Amino acid sequence: MMPSSSCSSTSSAFLLSLFLLLSVPILFLLAPRLLPPKTLPSIPSSDETSDLALFRRAILASNSSSASATSLRLPHRRPPKIAFLFLTNTPLHFAPLWERFFHNQSHLFNVYVHADPSLKPPLPPSFSSPSFAGRFIPSKPTQRASPTLISAARRLLAFALLDDPSNAYFALVSQTCIPLHSFDFAYRSLFSRPRRSYIEIVADDPGLYTRYIARGDDVMLPEVPFDRFRVGSQFFALTRKHAVMVVRDRRLWKKFRMPCLRKMRDSCYPEEHYFPTLLDMQDPNGCTGYTLTRVNWTDSVEGHPHMYKPEEVRPELILELRKSNSSYSYLFARKFAPECLDPLMQIADSVILKD
After folding, report:
1. C-beta separation of 334 from 171 below 8 A
2. What's the CA gap between 91 and 118, in Å, rounded?
3. Burial state string for 324-339 with b = 16 or more CB within 10 A and e = fewer than 16
4. Residue-level pLDDT at 199
5. Quick one: which of 244, 255, 281 has its CA closest to 56?
6. How confident is the model over 165-186, as pLDDT tens digits?
7. Residue ranges of the alpha helices (H) in the chain?
């Protein structure tokens, strides 16, 4: 007869083996919930589906209006407009300054606002007046270091394309942007020269390769080889031709919509990669290669540029921010703290809007 201690030992070993055997599939099922994901958040499928439907309508409408204009062989009877696309997740703190910028120019512009759905601050009175034509567009949540910021900009472009065939330029700005010149100056700057898109396109950034592999090694291939990958500013002024090009794109978008690896968060700025790469690959001669929005990166923190404080707002600052390395003057600037509104309004008529 086997000793009881030996029997007990055998039984314990059997139970331990059974427990380990059963725990493997349980751990396999629970691990994704217990461990942090390897990638940053991605775009929900429902958002992607609704966006694609919107983009198709915008493309069809643009094709239809182009074909109609060609068949009539007549110049457009209405003056071209600038569509200002506000991408914001806070209230529009500088609305009074923009209102003064837009004053008496309602026939030459439209305003579209993509606000965080949980926020939806009321539009300033003049923004929402019939003559002003400012409006919120149906929006989706956005998150830094994710392709949701690309989706929001494409959504704004699509709504502006659908809304008014007179929209000829599409200027993306943020809640921290301010104008640096009068509306007349900005309008003349855009329309007195051959139509080109003003978007920064950089091929020699020191961190280019790190940004390229933010989704993983070779993930961008074959659509985007490294030698065609570009970086640039998030904010731009696109021609209508290029706005249609952006909302029509599917080939590059399937790469840039992929979430970055969590360990590459510090190199993940999809909105600074997608637009310059796409336009440089499809129509480099149609782009200037630089932006019209001035940003100060001299003391950036965690990917954020310098934030101007009220004590920095002086006439000399505005004059300095206008200067560029090209023959074009900067038209807009960021990033300004909300508390800068009062000092900005004090010099609005005498400096900012005086050319």
Report:
1. no
2. 12
3. eeeeebbbbbbbbeee
4. 97
5. 244
6. 999 999 999 999 999 999 999 9
7. 4-34, 45-72, 95-102, 148-163, 183-191, 208-212, 240-248, 253-256, 274-282, 315-322, 341-346
- Nearest of 230, 229, 220, 217 to residue 289 by alpha carbon: 230
Dihedral in degrees, nearest 10, Cα atoms 172, 174, 175, 179:
-60
In the structure encoding, which two tokens stand for residue 295, read together?
């940003």
Tens digit of pLDDT for each residue in 58-107? 999 988 777 655 444 445 568 999 999 999 988 889 999 999 999 889 89
Q: Measuring CA to CA, which residue among 300, 298, 54 is closest to residue 160?
A: 54
In this structure, are residues 60 and 245 in contact, taking their beta carbons and an 8 Å threshold? no
H runs (alpha helix) in 164-196: 183-191
* b/e map 143-169, b = 16+ CB within 10 Å: eebbbbbbbbbbbbbbbbbbbbbbbbb
Give the Cα separation of 161 and 150 in Å (integer).
Answer: 17
Helix and strand numbers, DSSP H then E, in the chain: 11, 10
Distance of alpha carbon 328 from alpha carbon 321, whole angstroms: 12
Cis status of the peptide bond prior to 310, with omega within 30 of 0: no
Instruction: Kindly list the structural domains of the chain, giving each domain's residue range(s) and its CATH number in brackets, ordered by start.
Output: 45-352 (3.90.550)
